[in-house]
Amino acid sequence: MILLDSTVIVGFLDADDALHEAAVAKLKQIVGRQPLLASVISYAEVMTGVSLEHHPRDRVDGFFDAFINDLVAVDRQVAARAATLRGARRSLRMPDALILATADVHERIETAICGDTDWPKVEGLDCAVEVLAAPGRGG
Fold it and tell me: Residue of 64, 68, 84, 105 with fewest CB within 10 Å of its CB?
């Protein structure tokens, strides 16, 4: 299973986003091949974009209905792991630590896909981290 970070979801939804092309290409590659998951944190972040009128609600709902097999909750184990990850890497923001910890803690999640080049620098993870790169940024 693959966990999508909010940067990938927003990249897909927003044609003006730097990650749009990479997110569209990646989703074309993986949809239907492996179940896709998202953290409730990513859902909240994307829904904030709806509140701020960055994305229409029906487009966001359509994305989650069509592509995301399940939203993964933050429980005590994920929260504790996120605190450890954040403590070891202070540049990691807590929402990112929670999303990354979700992928790390759940054995069924093999890979987290994000747009943050800092995530692969986090040591000791039990999941792979794949970073999507904007055109011209490498990756």
Answer: 84
CA dihedral 39, 10, 111, 134 (to 10 degrees): -160
Tens digit of each residue's pLDDT (9 = 90 or more) over 27-40: 999 999 999 999 99
**Domain 2-131 bears CATH identifier 3.40.50.1010:** yes
SS (H, E, C) the chain: CEEECHHHHHHHHCCCCCCHHHHHHHHHHHCCCCCEEEEHHHHHHHHHHHHCCCCCHHHHHHHHHHHCCEEECCCHHHHHHHHHHHHHCCCCCHHHHHHHHHHHHCCCCCEEEECCCCHHHCCCCCCEEEECCCCCCCC
**Of 63-72, 90-99, 128-137, which range is least confident?**
128-137
Strand 36-39 versus strand 70-72 pairing type: parallel
Backbone angles phi, psi at 39, to 5 degrees: -75, 150
